[in-house]
Amino acid sequence: MNPSSPNAPPLEALRLGRLGARGLTFFVVVPLLLLGLGIYAYVQQRIHGDVVTHMRSVGDGGAAWGLYIMFDIFFVGLAATGIAVTTAAHLFRLRELRPISRVAEFVAVLSLMLAGMCVMADQGRPIDALINLPQFARVMSPFFGSFTLIVGVGVAASAVMLYLGGRGDAAWCARSNGPLRFGYRLWASGYQGTDRELSRHRKARFWLSLTIFPYIVVAYSTLGFVFGTQGGRPGWYGALRAPSMLVVAGISGVGLIVAIAGGLQRHLRAKDVIPQRLFVRLGNILLILISVFFYILVVETLTDFYAGHEASLRVSKSIVMGVYAPAFWSMIVVFLGAVGILGVQFLRRQPMIGWTAIAGLLVNIGAILRRYLVVVPAQTHGHYMDYAPGFYAPNWIEISVMLGILSFGVLAFIAFMRLFPIIPMHAYYGRMSAAPEPESRPRTLLRVSLTTATLVGGIAIALFGLAMSARMGTEPYLDPIFPFSPVVFIIGIVMTIYSAAVYVVAPPG
Amino acid sequence: MSKPNKITRRALFSPLRATSAAPKRQAETPVAPEDVQADAAPKRLSRWGMAIDLDLCSGCGGCVVSCKSENNVPMLGPEQESAGCTVEWMSVLPRGAKTDEPGSAPLEVMPVPCFHCDNPPCVKVCPVNATYQNEEGIVAQIWDRCIGCRYCTVACPYSRRSFNWKHAEWPESYRSMLNPDVGLRPEGIVEKCTFCHHRIRKLKEEAKLAGRELKSEEFDNLPACSESCPAGAIVFGDLNDPDSRVSRMAASPRASRMHEHLGTKPKVFYLAKDRRNL
Q1: Taking CB atoms and an 8 Å limit, are A49 and B188 in contact across chains?
Q2: What pTM value is reported for the model?
Q3: Which of A12, A45, A89, A126 has its CA 20 to 30 A from that of A452?
Q4: Sequence ranges of the domains in chain B
């Protein structure tokens, strides 16, 4: 179907229309109020110091990392899965995933922004962090991977995927006479929809997907290493920390995408676009991931209880039968609830869209509880010294800041849905009418040259930045050889990723 | 024919390196030795360490008070400190008592400074190199560079790092007593014991001006905690000097280091209670 045909649903069907009174209250007014509350709470934290939170010194019965770090891991996990879904759609040509690929791409970009906000909310000196991290980030620190790969590369990769995937729709939106026309034209950047252009798009997205697929594993594993490599912190130290975090990231990401897809199917006229079997497939994937998570959980817990190392056992006991037991058993119940819903769907082989969406939300609650149990008990109970054990639960300041950050995410998502088709138009209409193909043989010299230059230059700059940051061949514990080397590394990686966009957009020559 | 001068990468970037406020450790610096004493190096650097004789320690807490006073460690008041905001470079901790079991009383106590590990987990994890190990083995902290991420505090197996949860307020009567040799730390950063390295530097400078050689005995009670210990339980010194008192104590069969299995190689040695005296 062509969008210009009289039977075609209007463009507005793919964008969020005007919200009703209830929608306006839930999706705009309440988030705006919560955002205001979050800003107020954060200002209080900055004025009076982090003492206004419930985070406290490790050894004094407190946890130095709390709600902010939990949600940082949560958001990075969502982003990793968002990128994984969109890359899987292009790598394995999974057509079913195409309608939700934009949701996944935008979730990835947005989640990384929210993760960055969480990290900044956690820092004792956020302004210094913004200056010192780009200047002095050390490769030896597991934070280096989080800072460069997740913040730099993750944002760049998901933004390029979003940009490439949205060019055609931006070109369509640019035909209207709205105030954002210039923005749409900029995004479309001369998109014509010719066969050759589409072929270039396909190639670029395939190779980009192939490149960034391993990145997802590496980047998210570095976040696991932040905890798993700490030999002095029982409850964190262990080889299973990174893979288990990767699995929980997959659970929360797939869960959120299923929930959003369910919502879109209900509220946009997208029943024909988002196939019902997609919910069955994603539900089954979720079921497998939850099973793997349960396996890891049992292995971890059994090892601790069987080996009985005093400090590790203290952490495990606090989780399973101690002060953190309510959170642990709530997590188990929530995951089992999701397993029940998804299991029924699996056995019936019939899509239960509403229930699957609920399961998607449930697993996200479970994933947040799991992050709490990973981050906190090891700090309050995982001591080698004879410190008294303690407890951590966030207070109103931390909860308000977190609600503010989440509300910002909701508002950004609603704004994006209002301004741009959240479901790709080609998923609705099929391929749009293409501009006539020029008959002459395509000239590609300039395009290929520019792409090669960006790609090779990017790799060279990244390697140079890494070598300067890591002080290869000298002392690993010192500063980068020259300040801002980590930024050079990020620029190199971003250039490498952007070479895909250059290949698509550059003039043929 | 003479060879042309080869421009090395180090030489090429030396002007740039000079501009950074980096903690510098010379590449030629001998690596810190594995055990108590270092291998002989052409020019021997000190390797500062501490030995604490638990047989002599009465748990009076004098070391804690003198450390606070010497290093301008903020006192937050009982309310904040009981709320888990304590900033302490030297603590007296219960030992051997299961503090999570109700009714159990601590049997022994021990003074616990930063252990200035040879393989410090806190240095490994710091994302901005705000903490580093200097050429004499002291794990130091650059206050102004710290971003307050608290990774070092959660990575330290001994929890010997304190975060400034709030802005330190000094009573007017106390301001005149602040030690001018030690800077005040801003809120939102992590701080820790420095082995009173300002005292080491001062002593070295004084000896240099006087043109005399330093004796190992001069370091024995140099840090504030050691100086104030009425029982003389805390001894400081150069572990690379086999004749220093701290080296001899560290070599004692009673000496051990805290949780050696972690591989952090602390430079604080504890001498166990001599049961024959009981």
Answers
A1: yes
A2: 0.87
A3: A89
A4: 46-95+107-277
